[in-house]
Write a structure and sequence with these properties.
The protein has two domains: 32-106 and 125-151 and 244-284, D-Maltodextrin-Binding Protein, domain 2 (3-Layer(aba) Sandwich), CATH 3.40.190.170; 156-242 and 286-345, D-Maltodextrin-Binding Protein, domain 2. The N and C termini lie far apart (85 Å). With 347 residues, it is an alpha/beta fold. A six-stranded mixed sheet has the order 7-6-8-5-9-11. Strands 2-1-3-10-4 form a five-stranded mixed sheet. It contains 14 helices and eleven strands. The protein is globular and about 60 Å long. Helix 6 packs across helix 13 (305-326) and helix 13 crosses helix 14. Strand 1 (33-39), helix 2 (46-62) and strand 2 (67-72) form a beta-alpha-beta unit. The protein has helices at 7-29, 46-62, 84-89, 122-136, 167-170, 180-188, 201-206, 217-223, 252-256, 260-268, 272-284, 286-295, 305-326, 330-345; strands at residues 33-39, 67-72, 95-98, 144-151, 156-159, 174-177, 192-195, 212-215, 231-234, 245-251, 299-302. Helices cover 47% and strands 16% of the residues.
Length: 347
């Protein structure tokens, strides 16, 4: 049975209901969010230890613990590295750190920085890629909110029992290649490129499936490439043979579902605000990787300027084909990418 409340009681109840509603709204606003971040490298890789873990901790601190990011390395949540983009787009996970070019031809405009002899340091080129993306790639990744583009340090050749001292030494060499651009470059220069995800490379070298690989030194350390190769060839005259563009991306719906103040925290730790710093992490990670190879007593080969010019001339058709594949704005995008690298490299 219901009974009528007195006027004073009615007012009191109304106040209690109003306060409860406000407290409920405040609780909803202050909700805790746990995000799943998936990537393809082992947990000891600098991608996790020097980038993703500190990044997640910073966001947790700035949000007062309201955002928690759980990191799953080495494809622990299933699938293969080329599927990471679709996983974040489809909401299977909330965040991924991945390589857009793992799906060849799907995002060709970002591949310009992976063309031969475009890249400078990782710090400079990461900032160049980020500005390029802000200018040219808005809406280019449907269903996904790119938080950061960056690159690793310029890659070099790591070989087992087949040192590369000149262009002719490359002919017929079987080399693991990570992206379409470097695959085409190696093929153009006479090598036999073999595509495979990074974690498969140690076994492929050990079994003789490939003679070596292209990597920055940074990747060789967690994969222990220095233990199964015996020579390392650097191709560098202010620009490197290649790099790989990497992307930290968030599911668009997951981003939009965050309260406005939490979105602001994500935004403050994304894009140009962190691109240079993250690139510097990759540059600084080269020294430990090289030191590990030195401890093995390996050979180190640095191509001189005249030899590098031969590699540049030989790989130029790869650049030409990329421009033609993009269409009318291909040359303009290439020119802008080169100009942005020069801008941040201080040339």
């Amino acid at each position: 049975m219901f009974r009528r409340l007195k006027t004073g009681q009615s007012i009191l109840v109304g106040v209690v209901v109003l306060l409860a509603a406000k407290l409920g709204a405040a609780a909803a606003f202050a909700q805790d969010v746990t995000l799943k971040l998936h990537h393809f490298l082992p947990p000891q890789a600098i991608a996790q230890t020097e980038f993703l873990e500190p990044w997640a901790e910073k966001i947790a601190a700035q949000s007062g613990g309201r955002i928690k990011i759980d990191i799953y390395p080495a494809m622990q949540l299933g699938g293969k590295p080329p599927q990471l983009y679709d996983q974040v787009r489809d909401g299977v996970v909330d965040l991924v750190w991945t390589v857009p070019s793992y799906t060849p031809g799907r995002f060709p405009k970002i591949e310009v920085f992976e063309l031969p002899f475009i890249t400078a340091s990782a710090e400079a080129t990461s900032q160049a890629v980020m500005e390029y993306a802000d200018k040219h790639l808005q809406g280019y990744f449907p269903g996904v909110r790119p938080l950061l583009f960056h690159v690793h340090a310029p890659g070099l050749l790591h070989m087992n029992d087949r040192p590369i001292r000149r262009l002719e030494d490359l002919v017929g060499a079987k080399l693991r290649a990570p992206t379409r651009a470097i695959t085409e470059t190696l093929n153009q220069l006479g090598a036999v490129p073999v595509g495979m995800p990074a974690p498969q490379v140690p076994q492929a070298i050990s079994r003789g499936v490939v003679d070596g690989t292209v990597f920055p030194y940074e990747v060789t350390l967690p994969l222990r490439i220095h233990e199964i190769t015996d020579s390392h060839t650097t191709i560098w005259d202010g620009r490197g043979l290649y790099t790989t563009v990497l992307m930290l991306a968030m599911n668009q719906r997951a981003y939009e579902d965050l309260p406005e103040d939490l979105r602001a925290i994500i935004d403050a730790n994304a894009g140009m605000a962190i691109a240079g710093d993250i690139g510097r992490v990759w540059d600084e990670a080269e020294a430990p990787g090289r030191a590990a190879a030195e401890a093995e007593g390996d050979q180190f080969i640095d191509l001189d300027a005249a030899e590098i010019d031969r590699w540049k001339f030989g790989s130029e058709p790869v650049v030409t084909r990329w421009v033609e594949s993009i269409g009318d704005d291909g040359q303009a995008l290439l020119d802008d990418a080169r100009a942005l690298v020069a801008k941040y490299a201080g040339d």
